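Ticket 4471: requesting a sanity check on a complex prediction with pyridoxal-5'-phosphate. Repro inputs:
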Amino acid sequence: MKTEGRPTSPTAANMNDVKTVSGSKALDQATKLIFETGTPRRTGVDLPDPKGRASRLGPHAREGEIGLPGLSEPETMRHYVRLSQKNYAIDLGVYPLGSCTMKHNPRLNEKVARMAGLSDVHPLQPISTVQGALELMEELSHWLMTLTNMPAVALTPKAGAHGELCGMMAIRARLDADGMSHKRRVLVPESAHGTNPATAVQCGFTVDEIPASGDGRVNIEALREKLKQGDDVAGIMLTNPNTCGLFETDIMEIADLIHAKGGYFYCDGANFNALVGRVRPGDLGIDAMHINLHKTFSTPHGGGGPGSGPTVLSDALKDHAPVPYVVKTDTGYSLVENTEDTEGSFGRMCAFHGQMGMYSRALTYMMSHGSDGLKQATEDAVLNANYVQASLSDVMTPAFGGVCMHEALFDDRFLKDTGVETLDFAKAMIDEGYHPMTMYFPLVVHGAMLIEPTESESKGELDRFILSMRSLAERAKAGDVERFKNAPIHAPLRRLDETKAARQPVLRWTPPSKVSEAAE
Ligand SMILES: *Cc1c(COP(=O)(O)O)cnc(C)c1O
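Returned structure tokens:
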């Protein structure tokens, strides 16, 4: 706006280009690399050299400087606190990226996980001294089997992808035990998460892709065709709800078709948080499914903690579960550690017993919610996603009609002819204070924008987010292309060359050349 006789106020874009002497802006402190801040000769501690001790390192003793930066304690503290403030986090605001990185981690989980007896157990401790920990694992297994209506669960897999490996190895072990080793073809829908085909190949299967139908679900006619092409089908890997955020409505028919051909049904259960308390996978004909404790049961992930991917198994597969597993005996809990002591375990997936710290957090979440609370969390997650979808559907373009599950998927049709692309839109969200949603995934949708608000957002928070998204969509349509192409303008760093960063990452700091030193 121009007002006669008064200077025009600078626009947000050029305000941001104003340089300060210090490099800091407002109360945001400029941060250099720690190697540029500290020097090897400085130190935060003041310890005398040990007296009267001869080095026992012999020829292994280091000769030169190690070159690590030395800083005082306050400098070290400031460096890392400043870095942490550059992170966007679920504890700061809505995180529509979805999946595991943005779940609220209830503080009660953390309190329980830190209790003595849970946080300080060692995997090699005598069994008699860890009875409580084993009981916790047994109790968690009980909840997982009850919620899924499946007869067995392998707790040890350490991530979703690891759980897929567990399920597919169980399927392979079962096929081999039945003399069905010629069954090596696995059907995978084209919308699948990349880990599905990768897992199948890792297990020695070949992948046969099934196309999606127009409504974003598996094309069941194409599936029938694939099954007619031979009796070598080992099974299917199907995600439900799928990566378009939709329930696979033909899932029971799919299970029947696969079973009729002697194949097994692997379900990718990463999105089980949209089903807990409403649908039991065991009722749908599923033979194996991993559950991401870090997506469905609130355990921290995405920089905050390790994953955990317990895998439930059907009657047909349960004998092939990996060791070790907990069994309850007359005298307490014990562990089956050796495959010789089992009916046909395919082996061991990790050195010890899995992610104990995640088991205690997940069980805390389950018990503090109760079965009614878990169902409510599911319903809230689905309600929130549909609220976002419905509130934006007049200005943005939902990829498919009808209700969604826990995430709302938009395509880029609403940006047609605006000159603004999905990437620009996502970058402009940063200026509005929001981490971008998942973009360009799933691949079956053009310019995809996948928003997962989660169960823990209030209506007020969602309304604020929706308002920002609406205003961005309207600005894009009004032709404000520059604003989008320049975004983010308020972030400490502007548009980065992400392709170059991914292809040629500079992971190592090299000291500046010592020209000045040489001249001294
Ligand atoms: C997250 C996810 C996985 C993989 O889980 P990780 O714990 O990251 O290994 C697999 N499939 C789907 C659909 C997912 O969302």
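Notes from triage: Residues 99, 159-161, 193, 195, 239, 243, 268, 270, 292, 307, 309 surround pyridoxal-5'-phosphate (CB under 6 Å). Leaving this open until the requester confirms.
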